């Protein structure tokens, strides 16, 4: 028996098999891509989430701050200047310049503008030597701390830093019922803080970060 082959069909089959061998790695690549994620800008396998960084706000002068104002080349115009309760400062040749709410750099430029009438191209530097800050930049402690008070905020400040600054808890404090009052997007938020566990047992998970404007409330223990 003779079998006649259609050479055209044989060539087509061979070509299909060849293409199949070429396509197979492409399919494998697509499957791998779907499993691991290969879209541009997406998280790659093995990568952790990108940590969020807290914004680092520049310090703003507040009432009660003590400033050192340096006018370069003019020691007679330089010196310590307190920020008055109304937020203004005065210095030789310049009266009543609003300081509260400004950064030291902004205040320096304002003082240079005021001095320009009397001094050729004045160069002023403002250094904050004793910090209080604006109300929005402060941490307030109320209740059963040894010495409750208002503290200036600093970057990466924690509730332990705050407690140390007020001398710790007094004998009547209910440390584990403490709470942080915070305003977020115009709404009041309450954050429980177990200060007694933090201080007495060293449970550092209770050492939460504080933010500018926070109020730490330390209640009195129940009898």
Précis, in short:
By secondary structure, the chain is α+β, with helices and mostly antiparallel strands. The chain is built from four helices and ten strands, in the order H-E-E-E-E-H-E-E-E-H-E-E-H-E.
Describe the 3D structure.
With 223 residues, this protein is of the alpha+beta class. It is 25% helix and 24% strand. The strands form three sheets. The protein has a five-stranded mixed beta sheet with strand order 7-6-10-8-9, with helices on one face. A three-stranded antiparallel beta sheet has the order 2-1-5, with helices on one face. It has a two-stranded antiparallel sheet with strand order 3-4. A hairpin with a 7-residue loop joins strand 1 and strand 2.
Question: Poorly predicted ranges (pLDDT <50, ≥5 residues)?
Answer: 1-56
Q: How many H/I helical runs? A: 4
Query: How is the main sheet built?
Result: 5 strands, mixed
State the CATH superfamily name of the domain at 135-218: Outer membrane lipoprotein wza domain like
Radius of gyration: 33 Å
**How many β-strand runs?**
10
CATH architecture of the domain at 135-218: Roll
CATH class of the domain at 135-218: Alpha Beta
- Structural class, judged by helices and strands? alpha+beta
| Helix and strand sequence | HEEEEHEEEHEEHE
- Going across the biggest sheet, name each strand in turn: 7-6-10-8-9
Distance between the first and last residues' Cα: 110 Å
Shape field = elongated
Average pLDDT reading: 79
CATH topology of the domain at 135-218: Outer membrane lipoprotein wza fold like
Percent strand equals 15-25%
Q: What is the helix content?
A: 25-40%
């Amino acid at each position: 028996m003779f079998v006649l082959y259609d050479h055209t069909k044989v060539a087509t089959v061979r070509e299909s098999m060849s293409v199949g061998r070429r396509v197979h790695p492409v399919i494998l690549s697509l499957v791998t891509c779907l499993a691991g994620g290969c879209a541009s800008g997406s998280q790659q396998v093995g990568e952790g989430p990108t940590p969020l960084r807290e914004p680092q706000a520049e310090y703003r002068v507040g009432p009660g701050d003590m400033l050192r104002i340096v006018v370069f080349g003019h020691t007679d115009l330089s010196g310590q200047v307190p920020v008055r309760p109304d937020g203004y400062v005065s210095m030789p040749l310049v009266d009543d310049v609003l300081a509260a709410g400004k950064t030291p750099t902004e205040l320096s430029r304002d003082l240079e503008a005021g001095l320009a009438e009397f001094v050729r191209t004045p160069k002023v530097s403002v250094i904050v030597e004793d910090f209080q800050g604006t109300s929005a930049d402060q941490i307030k402690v109320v209740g059963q701390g040894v010495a409750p008070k208002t503290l200036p905020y600093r970057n990466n400040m924690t509730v332990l830093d705050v407690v140390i600054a007020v001398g710790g808890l007094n004998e009547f404090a209910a440390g584990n019922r403490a709470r942080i009052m915070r305003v977020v997007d115009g709404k009041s938020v309450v954050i429980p803080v177990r200060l007694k566990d933090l201080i007495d047992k060293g449970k550092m998970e209770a050492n939460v970060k504080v933010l500018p404007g926070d109020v730490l409330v330390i209640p009195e223990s129940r009898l």
